[in-house]
Structure prediction request, 205 residues.
Amino acid sequence: MAQQRSNISPFLLKPLLRGGIPSRQRRHTLPASEFRNLTPQDAISVFEIEREAFVSVSGLCPLTLDEVLHFLSLCPELSLGWFEEGQLVAFIIGSGWDKERLSQDALTTHVAGTPTVHIHVLSVHRHCRQQGKGSILLWRYLQYLRCLPWLRRALLICEEFLVPFYHKAGFKEKGPSLISVGHLRFTEMEYSLGGRAFERRNSGC
Prediction:
């Protein structure tokens, strides 16, 4: 969710350096740490991280490879990847939704131009876990969403053991989710992006 950067807010990216840098210093150099929207070209890396993270725990992936490609083609602006030295280490994929609550259809649907983003998955590479990267990426993503003027809230579903993680990030519980996947049951959570004019003005949007 070809290195397209046009949809990401500048406050998340390092400015491009201009002038006075010998070409030999630029050659083969990758930024140490970079946040950007994902593209379909990132789909395989995304799916490999997701599969390792989720299949070992629940036996299921939130998104299949085809669904990853689907969302990164339709709404790359609702994704965010964290790259270190050119390698994907963590990511979030979202899509647009137009109902008050998430339903089973939300798992595979993108509705463009709506005020709600459905966060499908947040995942961190196995070698980068227990370092706070998930919390940092989620904070960056929510700051970025505030810069998209049509958005007012984010919704997600999670298993019970993840509720405290999302509470800490500012999400509130909406109650048991209407969605079930196999034997798994979820809690639906909501984050308000509206009514934050001061934060929008001072976030570099």
